Amino acid sequence: SVATNWDPNRVPGPSDQVMITNGGVYTVTLDFTAMIKTLALGGASGEQTLAVYDSGLVLNSGVVNANGIFSLSNATLACPAMDVTRVFNCAGGTLSAQSQLTVSPLGVLNVMDNGMSIYGILFNRGKVFWQGGEVDVWNAGTTNCGVVLNQENALWDIRCDALMENPYHAGTPFFNAGTLRKTAGLGTTTLDGYLDNSGTDRK
């Protein structure tokens, strides 16, 4: 929200293409709900982090490039085309309806404490590490059509004892064509709902 941190010297708005690509190791913090046009996160060197917490980000499209880290904490992402080629951390984050988060083959999604709420499409072609918190896939078959698509050659790695469910109690749509496995946690992880499995599942 500091205008002088941007070029030109104003806080980005709905018509702006935001590029967080300068070299170096730094964090850009978003603590209010913002609307922008597009986002490019991650430069040629260093490590660039966008931390969105207790707020929200609304945009048309975005990409998390090499050296970029997107952190969503108790916040909402509304984006019909967000592509992750490096790291996306989610701790109590929400993917809104009509949004799509795509984890590319080189990308990683870490679902951490406080979990994740999915009202849109989570399309995994890379790696998802479910490390903690409940995953709620909201699908009523109408406006909220949350779904998880774990594609061929993708990995969904469970590292916690937690619950994945559809709070509408209509079955949790999880389509697995890749690898679904549990590698940590001494208790039970429950996928309460619909699992369409054409891939590999193992503990």
Protein described:
With 203 residues, this protein is mainly beta. The protein has no helices and 26 strands. The protein has strands at residues 17-20, 25-30, 34-35, 38-41, 47-53, 56-58, 61-64, 68-73, 76-78, 82-84, 87-91, 93-95, 100-103, 108-111, 116-118, 121-124, 127-130, 135-137, 147-150, 155-158, 163-165, 174-176, 179-182, 190-192, 195-197, 200-202. A nine-stranded parallel β-sheet has the order 1-4-7-10-13-16-19-22-25, with no helix packed on it. A nine-stranded parallel β-sheet has the order 2-5-8-11-14-17-20-23-26, with no helix packed on it. The protein is globular. The N and C termini lie far apart (46 Å).
Give a topology summary:
Blueprint: E1 17-20, E2 25-30, E3 34-35, E4 38-41, E5 47-53, E6 56-58, E7 61-64, E8 68-73, E9 76-78, E10 82-84, E11 87-91, E12 93-95, E13 100-103, E14 108-111, E15 116-118, E16 121-124, E17 127-130, E18 135-137, E19 147-150, E20 155-158, E21 163-165, E22 174-176, E23 179-182, E24 190-192, E25 195-197, E26 200-202
Parallel strand pairs: 1-4, 2-5, 3-6, 4-7, 5-8, 6-9, 7-10, 8-11, 9-12, 10-13, 11-14, 12-15, 13-16, 14-17, 15-18, 16-19, 17-20, 18-21, 19-22, 20-23, 21-24, 22-25, 23-26
How is this structure best summarized?
By secondary structure, the protein is mostly beta strands. Helices cover 0% and strands 49% of the residues.
